[in-house]
Amino acid sequence: MTTVRTRIAPSPTGDPHVGTAYIALFNLCFARQHGGQFILRIEDTDQLRSTRESEQQIYDALRWLGIEWDEGPDVGGPHGPYRQSERGHIYKQYSDELVAKGHAFPCFCSAERLDAVRAEQMANKETPRYDGHCMHIDPAEAQQRIAAGEAHVVRMKVPTEGVCVVPDMLRGEVEIPWDRMDMQVLMKTDGLPTYFLANVVDDHLMGITHVLRGEEWLPSAPKLIKLYEYFGWEQPQLCYMPLLRNPDKSKLSKRKNPTSVTFYQRMGYLPEAMLNYLGRMGWSMPDEREKFSLAEMVEHFDLSRVSLGGPIFDVDKLSWLNGQWLRELPVERFAAEIQKWALNPQYLMQIAPHVQNRVETFSQLAPLAGFFFMGGVSPDAKLFEHKKLSPEQVRQALQLILWKLEALRQWNKDNITAIINAVAAFMGCKLRDLMPLIFPAISGQASSVSVLDAMEILGPDLSRFRLRQAVELLGGVSKKETKEWEKLLAAIE
Ligand code: GLU
């Protein structure tokens, strides 16, 4: 009997998402329950958006939660490398194989031509798709053009009629019409594979037997299935896990709920409670108990208990569950966990240089620097009254800064300052005019230690959360304003 092997394959392009942790947890439980292995693969073929920092954050976030993998870029294993950017040589060979077998073809179409085709199809109310222009180029001619260095991609052929039957472990057979599938690009002009090719090749070479992935990938399943068929490989069992949702049932998004695992860490949730809550997403224990450990979940895990109704990720419920966990900890462990959370030497050393000159006794620390140990800070709305800016401008300035900070990749004082400066310039004022808004938003007080340093120390999750709360306190941003103000962002540099 083959050993069960599951994996997660996150792309390191942003904050470590709770959805990644959720899918990881279910893959881990499935593998452990069958005595199999769980693999972590980094899908970083998008060179522009992938970063090593984001990759490290994924490791840190999963480990914090208690999720461990048997093979991965950082722990090695017999099927490495586990980072797709280090497997470039492998994909080319498989892409060539598909072209040689006539299942894929080089495509030389320019972006202008593709745009024109798309525009025409849209005008005719057709679904935009590649029109097959390069499909019939003579292979010898195509090889010559490639040898001459002409830019090209490789596209896969797809059937134009009939349906693809996707065997899903949760839904049974899902039928998806082939005419919804485009001739997917498999290799980009930069010679790197797209998700589709790299994912199939790696799952095969890494011996993955079961793929539990998010339901958002179901519509593209036919392309993957076709690729397995073209290669003549056995397809892993597929399982499309229900998407996490906001309490209003919309897809979990950071506009409505913090989605980064690190946010929950900084807020002071216990990793076991967080993992327990993720285990409650679409799944329940046979006896329906709410509080359970990872070991208990593995012991009782059964994929057939996954329900397809979209699981709601509700921060209030998570907090309730966290409270249960905290109350049942032995008091020594409770104290130790607080120390680990924020009373650790590393965190205190970041804060110390900013408070040392400002206190005469340690007992002045709590009023001065208490906000380093808080989640939200509840400032008084009066603190946002401004001499020069109208209430609407105040809200706008805070919202623009928040959006800019949401897109900021390198979180440090210089970059934060540059953003506030840029928004100030855009609004026709100075950095020092906006700082009186940032102080209460971040520290809850009219003044405190250097707030720009504080933002660097607090990190992106808590800083953004507090700015968002400040905007909410001042009345929030309407849909209309969101639309109008978002357009302004491009002009702020
Ligand atoms: N790289 C994909 C992601 O970011 C992997 C999806 C899959 O599991 O196939 O989620």
UniProtKB/TrEMBL annotation:
<dbReference type="InterPro" id="IPR020751">
    <property type="entry name" value="aa-tRNA-synth_I_codon-bd_sub2"/>
</dbReference>
<dbReference type="InterPro" id="IPR008925">
    <property type="entry name" value="aa_tRNA-synth_I_cd-bd_sf"/>
</dbReference>
<feature type="short sequence motif" description="'KMSKS' region">
    <location>
        <begin position="251"/>
        <end position="255"/>
    </location>
</feature>
<dbReference type="GO" id="GO:0000049">
    <property type="term" value="F:tRNA binding"/>
</dbReference>
<feature type="binding site">
    <location>
        <position position="107"/>
    </location>
    <ligand>
        <name>Zn(2+)</name>
    </ligand>
</feature>
<keyword id="KW-0067">ATP-binding</keyword>
<dbReference type="InterPro" id="IPR020058">
    <property type="entry name" value="Glu/Gln-tRNA-synth_Ib_cat-dom"/>
</dbReference>
<keyword id="KW-0479">Metal-binding</keyword>
<dbReference type="InterPro" id="IPR004527">
    <property type="entry name" value="Glu-tRNA-ligase_bac/mito"/>
</dbReference>
<dbReference type="InterPro" id="IPR000924">
    <property type="entry name" value="Glu/Gln-tRNA-synth"/>
</dbReference>
<feature type="binding site">
    <location>
        <position position="254"/>
    </location>
    <ligand>
        <name>ATP</name>
    </ligand>
</feature>
<dbReference type="Pfam" id="PF00749">
    <property type="entry name" value="tRNA-synt_1c"/>
</dbReference>
<dbReference type="InterPro" id="IPR001412">
    <property type="entry name" value="aa-tRNA-synth_I_CS"/>
</dbReference>
<keyword id="KW-0648">Protein biosynthesis</keyword>
<dbReference type="GO" id="GO:0004818">
    <property type="term" value="F:glutamate-tRNA ligase activity"/>
</dbReference>
<keyword id="KW-0963">Cytoplasm</keyword>
<feature type="domain" description="Glutamyl/glutaminyl-tRNA synthetase class Ib catalytic">
    <location>
        <begin position="4"/>
        <end position="320"/>
    </location>
</feature>
<feature type="short sequence motif" description="'HIGH' region">
    <location>
        <begin position="10"/>
        <end position="20"/>
    </location>
</feature>
<feature type="binding site">
    <location>
        <position position="136"/>
    </location>
    <ligand>
        <name>Zn(2+)</name>
    </ligand>
</feature>
<dbReference type="InterPro" id="IPR045462">
    <property type="entry name" value="aa-tRNA-synth_I_cd-bd"/>
</dbReference>
<keyword id="KW-0862">Zinc</keyword>
<keyword id="KW-0436">Ligase</keyword>
<dbReference type="InterPro" id="IPR014729">
    <property type="entry name" value="Rossmann-like_a/b/a_fold"/>
</dbReference>
<comment type="function">
    <text>Catalyzes the attachment of glutamate to tRNA(Glu) in a two-step reaction: glutamate is first activated by ATP to form Glu-AMP and then transferred to the acceptor end of tRNA(Glu).</text>
</comment>
<dbReference type="GO" id="GO:0005524">
    <property type="term" value="F:ATP binding"/>
</dbReference>
<dbReference type="GO" id="GO:0006424">
    <property type="term" value="P:glutamyl-tRNA aminoacylation"/>
</dbReference>
<keyword id="KW-0547">Nucleotide-binding</keyword>
<dbReference type="GO" id="GO:0005829">
    <property type="term" value="C:cytosol"/>
</dbReference>
<feature type="domain" description="Aminoacyl-tRNA synthetase class I anticodon-binding">
    <location>
        <begin position="333"/>
        <end position="470"/>
    </location>
</feature>
<protein>
    <recommendedName>
        <fullName>Glutamate--tRNA ligase</fullName>
        <ecNumber>6.1.1.17</ecNumber>
    </recommendedName>
</protein>
<keyword id="KW-0030">Aminoacyl-tRNA synthetase</keyword>
<dbReference type="InterPro" id="IPR033910">
    <property type="entry name" value="GluRS_core"/>
</dbReference>
<comment type="similarity">
    <text>Belongs to the class-I aminoacyl-tRNA synthetase family. Glutamate--tRNA ligase type 1 subfamily.</text>
</comment>
<comment type="subunit">
    <text>Monomer.</text>
</comment>
<dbReference type="Pfam" id="PF19269">
    <property type="entry name" value="Anticodon_2"/>
</dbReference>
<dbReference type="GO" id="GO:0008270">
    <property type="term" value="F:zinc ion binding"/>
</dbReference>
<feature type="binding site">
    <location>
        <position position="134"/>
    </location>
    <ligand>
        <name>Zn(2+)</name>
    </ligand>
</feature>
<dbReference type="InterPro" id="IPR049940">
    <property type="entry name" value="GluQ/Sye"/>
</dbReference>
<feature type="binding site">
    <location>
        <position position="109"/>
    </location>
    <ligand>
        <name>Zn(2+)</name>
    </ligand>
</feature>
